[in-house]
Amino acid sequence: MDEPRWLNSDEDRAWRGYRRLSLLLGRQLARDLVADSNLSEADYDVLSNLGETPGGRIRLTDLAAHMRWSPSRLSHQVARMRQRGLVTREASPDDGRGSVIVLSDEGRRTIEEAAPRHVESVRRHFIDLLTPAQVQALAALSDTVVEHLVKAESE
Question: pTM for this one?
Fold first, then answer.
């Protein structure tokens, strides 16, 4: 086996900093989301993705693939959200085995009220702390890593 390519001090600092940032920022945004809108991150992710689909409807398997979730995970999340009236689930007109997730009126109202508060939290705890150059650099590095990971996923 080849010798590991250990991280140098700058690389180690960047990696550990990213990991800590990801953990702390995720926790803070999740706390704000619950406090401001009574939504979990999973609730928000499903509602915001549904809100971006034509008619607020999409096949469960397509939404799961788009969100990089397993269909089982999404199905359990949708069941919890149905109980709260945020979404409905219908049989797929194209395939009797599949189902379509539909954003309810309550779900649409909920995401429309939650989104401005969530964006403010993202600004307060992340975006507004960065310079425009840092935002551009972060966008570029995110694009690079995401492109690599999406490609690796399909191999």
Answer: 0.90
